[in-house]
Structures are given as structure tokens and as C-alpha cells.
Amino acid sequence: MPGPEDDLALLTEAAREAGQIALRYWKQDPETWEKADDAGPVTEADLAVNDALARKLQAARPDYGWLSEESEADPSRLDADHCFIIDPIDGTRAFIAGQEGFSHSLAIAQGDDIIAAVVYLPARDILYTASKDGPALRNGDPIAPCDADIDGASVLTYRAASEPGYWRGGTTPPFRREFRPSLAWRLCLAAEGRFDAALSLRAAWEWDIAAGSLIAERAGALATDRRGGRMRFNSPKAMVDGLIVAGPRLHRQILDALAPAGQG
């Protein structure tokens, strides 16, 4: 049975190959269409990357389950001891616009825990990696989060999270809101201290956050759902109830400042 480091090596190789495929379509006006139920855009590049990853990863680990944004749901994954959790291109809108802020997010769950994770930005050649017992690395160098106070903190989140109704007493803390198109990348940016926190107050798909959550944790950040609970992966709904990713002190300050979940 391969261990987490073996799985990490496999994910790393696969992510770099995915990047080569994605860059063939990037800035080349790829075919694009909207998913059903207002689920956002998808391109021929998303599907090409997904197919290549499925072939490589499932051939290498045929007993592992498979959960990907661009694959039909397969309930048999719930019975597997290990499961791939994949977003072939996270930040598809940025990809379509010819921007650099898209990534490949690849993770492996054992039970409901992530044990190996890679987030790769091919247009920038930035590779984040972590295994459950190893360090979090950016292009081979260790990373660590900041642990700022909430006042003036740089928080990667969407505009609506700044609305007063989400915060105790109807008062939004004086943090500085920032944004990057790939959610997986946002978690990694918080993990490496380039920003102080990543925050989402709405449910997040597992494929967007599985890899980034382990990278953040191994860097020394706390990565929880919006209530401060442990994230659990390879779940039937494949969703997590929001997220807070930050150094321990800032994480506590954000959690204390939020209105009880369900408000806002």
C-alpha cells in the first residue's frame, strides 16, 4: 500500500502534466459553455485536464475512489478507503479571461482526512505541496502563516462576507478585503502568509478546498469550517460548511467576531 509521500509524488507529477495541458488552451480562445443550474462556466480545457488526470491517477491507484468537479458523481467513492478529490481547473473564469490566477487542486483523502495535497498554478509555475506528516512547501521551500490581529488584517474573501449581517452586533471588523479567483490558491496564500486569512461564509465544494486545507494545516494555520469545526472530506454531499483559514490567534478572533451560523 503506498504511503502519503508516495501519493504526494504521484499528485505532484500529475499536477505538472495537467499544467502542460491547460497551458495549451490558455489564451487560445477555448470552447466555453455554462453548466446547468447556474453552476458556472466550463471549458474544453477543464474536461481535457480532468480526463488526463483520471487516466493517470486511476491507473496508478485503481482502488481509490474518485471525486472531481468535472466527473459524473460515483457513489462507490464513499466505500473506498482512499479517494482522489480533484478540481481540474479552479478559477475557470480567470482561465477564460487569460489571467494567471487559476490552479489545479489535487488531494487524496483517507477516510475523511486529507493525507496528500498539491495546488499548482501553471501560468506562474508555483507549486504548493503537503502530506499529512510532512511540511507545507512552496516550490520546495517551507511556508508559514502570519498571525495578525483582525484589525487591519488582509482577508481573502468575496464581497458579501463584508456585509454587517454576518458579524456580531452588525459591525464588520476593520479587516481589509482582498480577492483571488482560485479558492484553492486563496487557502495557500493564507498558508504562506502573503495574506492573513482566507474566509468563506457559504458552503464550499470539497474539490475547491481539500488540497489547500491540508497545505494550510501543515504550514501551521488553522483550517476549519465557518463554525470552527473540523473539515471532513469525501462526504456524501461533497461540501463543507464554509471555511476559516488563518494563524491561530486571528482564526480565534474571526470566529469570535462572526454572528452565529445561520444569521446574515
UniProtKB/TrEMBL annotation:
Pfam families: Inositol_P. Keywords: Magnesium, Metal-binding. CDD domains: CysQ. InterPro entries: Inositol_monophosphatase-like, Inositol_monophosphatase_CS. It comes from the Bacteria. Belongs to the inositol monophosphatase superfamily. PANTHER family: INOSITOL MONOPHOSPHATASE, INOSITOL-1-MONOPHOSPHATASE-RELATED. This is 3'(2'),5'-bisphosphate nucleotidase CysQ. It comes from Paracoccus fistulariae.
